[in-house]
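Dear H.,

Thanks for agreeing to be a second pair of eyes. The structure we're designing against is below in token form, covering all 413 positions.
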């Protein structure tokens, strides 16, 4: 079984929203052993939907659509599918009652649009949606399967996981034995990685591939086999060889993110952490606390955006700010000292910089970031020279900060 993913919506084409549905579906289908032939975004018109389904059926056995199932005039997916299949539509009273109950439970009025949403193509097999009003719909034509789902991400995911995955074996033969592992690296670029592991990748058989996926200071290495044979052992062997070669640049595997790796490391060492942030404005603490269990090691943050707060809350000396400036090695050292004395944590990190797009000078251009991290007795500093874009600088600095903390704990505790 091979698949095509069609995401419907003018808002995708004009850049108003980012299409996350296709990325999520592509990942899940690959994990299930169903190759994805194509991902296409298309307009909210019946003609584009019908033509795209027709083209997808030439190359795929399973066609997944997201979007256009609402009750408004721009939601034309149901009508397009009905025309493509040359079938009529009908009012489904059971569906109407179910959607009505959804509104009643939430003390919302039942509008005329509920009746529109309850009108579906004649041959549709409804797929339960317990987190929204629009059900998924399954159709069959010429031994191919067409499945339409809502465009709302959490609804689409619920339907796929609960109403589609259980019936996939009944829809077609899943022949491909896809097995993949992802090595998560940080602090090293893909060119350096490629050079370091070239002799290993040269020994890969034809049915095992390696992909480099760089993103904001990190590189994911995906080792994948799509052979009919079980290549689990071979993939795992190459993952172990690459990981051994890259050493501390590797922080985790598969679904692990740097926030997870930092949390697990601190908890395993029974260490506590606090943060003092200026230019990142609390984004580092947000990232740290975004994963469950962070309260077991993370104590808190002080956002010292203004110099007055640096002085009054972190005991940064006015002479230091006057002589060196807020963005300086001397200032972040004093920020770190004040933070650790105030919070009493084992380890801390302090950040001050010029995120941009304004505020830079010839000596300290936009993207100049200073970081101090460690303990009262043993600390290190790092100067980052980054980019012109504000949000990119903030995101990169938070990621780099977590990696600096990770390496400090690995090498000093």
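And this is the sequence the design step returned. I haven't edited it by hand at all.
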């Amino acid at each position: 079984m091979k698949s095509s993913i069609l995401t419907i919506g003018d808002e995708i084409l004009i850049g108003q929203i980012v299409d996350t549905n296709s990325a999520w579906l592509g990942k899940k289908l690959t994990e299930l052993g169903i190759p994805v032939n194509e991902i296409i975004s298309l307009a909210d018109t019946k003609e584009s939907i019908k033509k795209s389904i027709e083209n997808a059926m030439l190359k795929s056995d399973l066609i997944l659509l997201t979007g256009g199932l609402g009750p408004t005039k721009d939601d034309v997916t149901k009508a397009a599918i009905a025309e493509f299949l040359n079938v009529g539509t009908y009012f489904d009273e059971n569906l109407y009652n179910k959607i009505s109950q959804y509104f009643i439970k939430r003390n919302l009025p039942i509008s005329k649009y509920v009746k529109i949403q309850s009108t579906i193509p004649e041959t549709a097999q409804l797929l339960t949606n317990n987190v929204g009003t629009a059900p998924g719909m399954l159709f069959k034509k010429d031994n191919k399967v067409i499945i339409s789902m809502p465009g709302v991400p959490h609804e689409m995911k619920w339907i796929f996981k609960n109403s589609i995955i259980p019936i996939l074996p009944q829809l077609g033969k899943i022949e491909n034995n896809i097995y993949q592992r992802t090595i998560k690296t940080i602090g090293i670029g893909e060119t350096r990685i490629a050079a370091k592991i070239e002799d290993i990748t040269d020994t890969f058989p034809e049915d095992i591939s390696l992909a480099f996926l760089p993103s904001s200071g990190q590189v994911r290495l995906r080792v994948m086999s799509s052979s009919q044979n079980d290549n689990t052992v071979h993939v795992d062997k190459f993952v172990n060889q690459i990981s051994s070669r890259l050493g501390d640049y590797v922080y985790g595997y598969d679904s692990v993110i740097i926030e997870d790796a930092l949390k697990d490391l601190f908890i395993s060492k029974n260490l506590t952490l606090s943060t003092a942030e200026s230019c990142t404005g609390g984004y580092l603490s947000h990232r740290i606390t975004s994963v469950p269990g962070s309260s077991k090691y993370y104590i808190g943050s002080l956002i010292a955006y203004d110099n007055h707060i640096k002085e009054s809350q972190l005991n940064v000396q006015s002479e230091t700010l006057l002589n060196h400036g807020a963005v300086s090695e001397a200032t972040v050292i004093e920020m770190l000292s004040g933070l650790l004395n105030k919070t009493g944590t084992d380890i801390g990190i302090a950040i001050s910089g010029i995120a941009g797009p304004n505020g830079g000078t010839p000596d300290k251009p936009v993207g100049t970031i200073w970081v101090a991290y460690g303990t009262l007795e043993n600390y290190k500093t790092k100067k980052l020279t980054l980019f012109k874009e504000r949000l990119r600088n903030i995101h990169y600095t938070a990621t780099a900060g977590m990696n600096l903390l990770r390496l400090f704990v690995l090498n000093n505790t």
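Two observations from my side: The longest strand covers residues 179-186. The longest helix spans residues 390-412.

Warmly,
E.
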